Predict the 3D structure of the following.
Amino acid sequence: MKNCGILLIVTMFGIVVIGPRNKTNAQTLTTLHVFTMDEGVPIEPQGPLVAGCDGNFYNVLYNGGPSEFGSFFRVNPNGSFTNLYTFSGGSDGADPSVGLVLGSDGSFYDTAGFNPNGLGTVFRVATNGTLTTLLSFTDSDGCEPQGLVLGTPTDLYGVTQGCNGPFYPYGSVFQVSTNGTLTQIYQFSGSASDWSWPATPLVKGTDTNFYGMTGGDGVGGHSGGTGGTVFRISPTGAFTNLYAFSGQAVSDVEGNMGSSRLVEGSDSNFYGTVPFGGNTVSNTDGWGSIFQITPSGTLTTLHTFNLTDGGRPSGPLVEGSDGNFYGVATAGGVPNVADGNGVVYRVSPSGGYTNVYSFQGESDGQNPIGGLVQGSDGSFYGLTSFGFGSIFKLQIPLSIPSGQIVGSLPNQISMIRPVSTNVVITIPSITGENYQLQYSDSMSTALWSNVSGASLSNSLGGPISLTDIGGAINTQRFYRVDVSTCAGHTYTDPAGFTTLTIIGTNVPPIYSFLSLGLCQLPVLRGTTTAITGQKISLDAPLLPAQYSENTSGGSTNPSYFIEFTSGANAGLRDDIVSNDAVSVYTSNDDSSVESAGVMYKLYPHWTIGSVFGPTNSAGLLGGATSGVADNIQIWNPNSQGYTTYYYKTGGIGGTGWHSASSAIINSSNAVLYIDQGILIVRRASADVPIVLFGGVKLGQTISSVVSSGSTYVGNVYAAGVALGTSGLYTTNSATGVNGGASASSADNVEIWNPNTQGYTTYYYKNGGLLGGTGWRSTVSPSIDTSTNQIPEGAVALIVRKIAGSFAWPIPAPY
């Protein structure tokens, strides 16, 4: 099928939204705002958007406003734009710099490069646009400040670039309080000990020191000079020159475009870019490079741009929630027209480089500038500079580190695993946010407590791990992560582990019915954009064949399913057969039950291998045939019979999971549906504990009950479901169980008791002389049993005695 994408003509009259672009690379770019002449144009020097406490993004434009003195604006993730302040060039200064920083008070702080003295200012600006000039530089203070970084809640640090005159001619490092008190803590000498002209805002390391770059000696590689340096300085002014670039980098002679600050990675190394040098084959100045430098000064070049893959990197890198770094280059890319239209790129800490989006120079803009910021939705937001410039949102399928689930979601738990007696939770984090692991030993009561020592403040981005020391000694525990910013607290969906027990016997066989009670962790969530037949279009880009069926082992099994989590049929699930760049294709036509705009989650399926281990790490009894091995039996409500699986230990077909009907085909990937009842036939004496780690099922679940037959429905929740609130009885036998005067005339709900090896039978009594109406058991028809539960980990056998199937919407019990 030809996939054409959608283009809307770019105008200057409001938000411009374009359809998915670069479908072959599975990226979706949306232009949120196109700047007007009066608003200004993003030009160098330009920094990235900064997230505020209110969920909006803020930034300054160096030459914004009608008079081009600069401006301060707000844009929300949907593109609503507000110009909040326009600089006058008077006492408020002009030419705001690239170092806008969010303060602990929720206001923003930055510097401007000009004031009535021509030397610059430090200012505070509130989210409503109220600006306060905290400091106006004089000759004795230095000049041309280059942005700020927060050192403590009440102190900021910055650099001046230096200017003609006796005071700080080569630049300085200063501290300024949030009330405007200035302290100079270091003066550059212009000699080889520290060189001169600090060119970028500082970054604060986790070691409490500050790191920055200088423009070098002003000569650079052209004449054998120094093309810039990387330095470290303590809060009290102890200075260390870490590295001196020997070639073209960021010096004045070479363009002075090195205005991007370093960024500290979650590995405690620092990452940055230089816009010149590197590959000089097609350009004697080169197209720039990306580097890593350790806190002790060991520098590694990760990538050298060659124009085809980008050129002239602009703005700082940002560590994404997947642990890779993302940035923009103003030139290059495909199509390579003249110097190109610019790219968004990804680079791993080890140097693996990917051009993730090439600007086309059409309605998606041209020449990205100033770097990126990752929103809490996982998307990246940035600026372009061509024409009047624009603000864009780019959705990228994140490149997930080894061992994590493909498609892991920012600020949602992506992995839960035992490590010895500990439980380790991994969550892809967002830069600058705070994370606290919490636990509860029961989802029925869900009293959440902080896990001591399992927190991280001011994340650097990338996947983080939080550990519950000793947590795995419990038989059951659930976790969530409290994610906090200055905007408040949000919580991840809970995950946890539970222990399912398969009982043993000295007189085999013995039977246990199990439901899994936990899901695999979801890999994607969002809102559908269209549902047509078996095609469901999503609001997130997908990688080719990312969710396709599994065909290994000689059989075809779905690997993932989609669940609708809102709408009239919330809780409905369907297997995914395949996917393209923006859509999944399902087993059934869902267009008659749901429509565009409903929310969804994508989950991996449980399989025999993922629950019991591909090589039977659970320890069930294996055997050459199903008649001597433990059996895993799955009921088929349509055929009213079992499919039997066992772990084969010899004979034709080799070792592994097989079905009794085919000893050759490996059944490790056979699907175990989350609402499926699993019958274990045990032929050994020891109990077998199955410790299952996964996500807690939230929201309503819809399960199907067949006509005139038996259906086993496993409890999908991490808590018991009471009969009275289960939704099984609705007074209408077409939408729920059929009631009756006795168990013999009513539909039955039977719960297996593994200890007695027998069922407890329930029914809804709606007539008869004794006992009134309501849920009853055959043991005592006069006693109300509406509070009796389908226990956590249990299976309900629904015996339907009348014609007509129905969909059972099971409400979550917590």
Q: What stands out?
A: The longest helix spans residues 608-612. Residues 291 and 301 are 4 Å apart (CA to CA).
